[in-house]
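Researcher: Sequence recovery benchmark, item below. Answer with residues only.
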């Protein structure tokens, strides 16, 4: 069917041609393509994060070496994030860091290091390097908080390490003098871990000799934390 005179007139009309090749239409199309590409990249990144998380949980799709590498990265990232949050917001951590400054032993966040440890430890202290946080040794943010305070004050009694809930998690259910017994037990373990300690018996003797005076000394706290 031949085009009508009206159709031919419209096709040759400058107004019709201007509308067909409108710059606004081209810009809109380009913007839509850009948005679609950006959304596609976001979806791809979200999927990749989900895949890595699933792989860490199940181990599927990763070799043993890759699994350990990804797990180590995740542990380090979580430990560092919690460290920053606790230094900023934890009353106990902030209190201890303030009192260390007053005592002439300032402790900066750069002196608190996250690193992998063996499965029996959650933290440590070195007078030359500062505090070690075992990035693979924490079961919660509260656990990391107690470890940071413990290493700052070097006392199970004042760090929250012997709270009733922590003892229950360890499978210990004493109803009388539980706190004292926990503090003594963990102090002995700490002394025994010192390379200079000769034996378990020597660690027990050292702790028993000073236990009463040390247990009753809550400085810099007014009471047990």
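Model:
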């Amino acid at each position: 069917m031949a085009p009508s005179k009206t159709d031919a007139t419209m096709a040759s009309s400058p107004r019709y041609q201007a509308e067909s090749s409108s710059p606004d239409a081209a810009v809109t199309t380009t913007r839509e393509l850009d948005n679609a590409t950006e959304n596609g990249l976001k979806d791809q990144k979200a999927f990749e994060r989900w895949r890595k998380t699933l792989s860490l949980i199940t181990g599927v799709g990763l070799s043993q070496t890759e699994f350990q590498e990804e797990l180590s990265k995740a542990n380090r990232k979580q430990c560092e994030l919690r460290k920053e949050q606790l230094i900023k917001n934890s009353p106990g951590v902030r209190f201890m860091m303030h009192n260390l400054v007053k005592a002439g032993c300032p402790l900066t966040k750069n002196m608190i290091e996250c690193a992998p440890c063996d499965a029996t430890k959650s933290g440590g202290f070195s007078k030359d390097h500062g505090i070690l946080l075992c990035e693979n040794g924490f079961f919660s943010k509260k656990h990391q908080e107690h470890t940071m305070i413990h290493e700052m004050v070097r006392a199970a009694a004042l760090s929250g390490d012997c709270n009733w809930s922590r003892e229950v998690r360890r499978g210990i259910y004493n109803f009388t003098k539980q706190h004292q017994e926990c503090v003594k037990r963990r102090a002995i373990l700490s002394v025994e871990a010192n390379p200079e300690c000769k034996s378990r018996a020597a660690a027990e003797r050292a702790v028993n000799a000073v236990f009463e005076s040390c247990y009753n000394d809550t400085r810099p706290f007014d009471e047990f934390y």
